[in-house]
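Appendix B. Raw example, untouched.
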Amino acid sequence: MVTSKARGRWAALLLAALTPVVAELTLGNPPLRQAWLILLWVPIYGAGTVLVRELVRRAGRGWAAILLLGAAYGIVEEGLALQALTSPTIYGVAGWAPRVLGLNSAYTELNIPYHAVFSVALPILLLDLIFPGLRRQPYLGRTGLVVAGVVFVLGAMLLRLTVTTSIDPGYQAPPEVLIGCLVAVALLAVVALRLTPRRPGTPSPVTAPAPVFAGGFGAVVAFGYLALLFPFGGAEHPAFTRGGWVAVPMVAAAVLAVAAGWLLSRWTTADAWSDRHSLALASGALVAHTAFGVIANGETLADRLSLAALGVVMAGLLALLGRRTRG
């Protein structure tokens, strides 16, 4: 008979393996023909998301804390490891929109929320649905928590020494930027673990939408946010804009994110909100996320077809999960 501790360790390993697949591979970054590159991301992505979940569960906090720590994770990866938030050369993102206080503004607006949702919150939600009996408790003991933290730091260093040196050689963020990133991470961690509401909250009198509506909502918000900020189809700036007009999709994306967050904060606390709603919401976001990757990230027809095939497999696995998810 498998003990609760053993199930927790298996759940943590599955979360660590699933996270880079959700965050990178199902977006077509890298393409399936270079899927082995995921191994470079497993330490930082996997250990980072496990660390976030362990800290939040130990503090007895909820999804607000997970999203805030997910944003902190994004700052560590993009600001400290890759240093893409400020690099004037990496990925060409400095040309997407005007740089603000040295930050690549559109790239920052895109990627910090992206990591909070797709690199952290959605993988944790999927594991909660796969292992519903463990959702309220940490997966690991104190030793496991320390190991996750050490692997996360080493993973960030690995990313810095491998990926960054090959795609952005020679760039080093100014010391004040690195200090600012560390301060931001610390502040987000304090707010997440000390100031956010404890779960479960008071049920909301709001009526929850049907699961199919939640799925469509997740799809529209995910696809819309990505399409507003990530240049695709040959565009050099977000949403095919030029000059000062780039502010329009950036503001629209911010409004979309705030509105979606407000609605979800009400719906998910409704009495009628169930695991089926949560799975539908996640499924819609994940399928739309991969559909956008087919459009925006496929360099060749083979890349687009292989990513579409991966999306079909993903949708099938989500449907299987749906069959064992309670209403």
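End of appendix B.
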